Amino acid sequence: MNEFWDRVLDFCVKTTETVSDRLMQDFGKIQAQEKEDGSLVTQADKWSDEQIRKAIAKTFPEHGVLSEETVHIFPEHDWCWIIDPIDGTTNFTRGVPLWSISLGLLYQGTPVFGFVYLPPTKQTFHGYWYGDSGLSGYTGSYLNHQPIHTSRESPSGTQLFNLCARSKAIFQKPFPCKVRMLGVASYNLLLVAAGVAIGGVEATPKIWDIAAAWVIVKAAGGEFVFLDHQFEFPLHHGQDYGKVSIPSLGLCRSELVPQFEPLVKCVLPKSYKL
């Protein structure tokens, strides 16, 4: 299947670079509106979303699409793209040079390819994770087309752990690592894949925040935990994922789950707590 994966990767590179040219012109110069769920959206998000959907329809007409700004219902297609046209909209509007375009490709409801491009830093992450899908081809995760792997370091005051703005409850107890808040859900987790951070937590991400990063973290040797133990892949045809939060923990390796999962459980809404 490598010919297919070459086509997928080439599509992602060219599409995100084309879209980012326009986005960089709007970067730091555009106002955002608040959506019902408290997240922000701009005309740039909507434009980016539309351009990516059009490109998918032209290049992969047999594939479905689920995107942050338009269609939230998972379609009845074997192949489906999940789009976050601007991950880190607050950073984008405020001129903070850290935001991304995130594309995840699912097969029969489970992510098998992830691609994330950060225009301000010109960093490109991608990865392949086939699980038990029966698919084959390239393996591993890459940063700017060079292989990456998660860290083998142990938790300590010299190691980084990424938080989101809604996970500050973690500070109620001592935490074994230095913490960072970056404002970009995908990047919080991608730095785990790249071996920069040993872990990262997102309290309320949606499927478009994690679909690509899930693949890249796992393909880099990491562990991805859904903290409510309710969500799991595959996604279900016809289900609306627009309001489904997926509290997530990414770690550099599975052995750290028993240590970190109890420390970050406090980010769950009370309705999730056991």
Q: Under the CATH scheme, which class of the largest domain?
A: Alpha Beta
Count of separate DSSP helical elements: 6
Secondary structure category: alpha+beta
Secondary structure: helix percent: 25-40%
Whole-number total of structural domains: 2
Question: Mean pLDDT score, rounded?
Answer: 95
Written account of the structure:
With 274 residues, the chain is an alpha+beta fold. The protein has two domains: 2-147, Fructose-1,6-Bisphosphatase, subunit A, domain 1 (Fructose-1,6-Bisphosphatase, Chain A, domain 1, 2-Layer Sandwich), CATH 3.30.540; 160-272, D-Maltodextrin-Binding Protein, domain 2 (3-Layer(aba) Sandwich). The chain contains six helices and 14 strands. Strands 3-4-5-6-7-8-9 form a seven-stranded mixed sheet, sandwiched between helices. A five-stranded mixed sheet has the order 11-10-12-14-13, sandwiched between helices. α1 (2-26) runs antiparallel to α2 (43-59). The longest helix has 25 residues, at 2-26. It is globular, with a radius of gyration of 17 Å. The mean pLDDT is 95.
What's this entry about, in short?
The protein has 2 domains: 146 residues, Fructose-1,6-Bisphosphatase, Chain A, domain 1; 113 residues, D-Maltodextrin-Binding Protein, domain 2. 28% of the residues lie in helices and 25% in strands.
Can you give keywords for this protein?
single chain, D-Maltodextrin-Binding Protein, domain 2, seven-stranded mixed β-sheet, 28% helix
Q: How is this fold's topology laid out?
A:
Blueprint: H1 2-26, E1 33-34, E2 40-41, H2 43-59, E3 64-67, E4 79-87, H3 89-94, E5 100-107, E6 110-118, E7 123-128, E8 140-143, E9 146-148, E10 160-163, E11 178-181, H4 185-193, E12 197-202, H5 207-219, E13 223-226, E14 248-251, H6 257-264
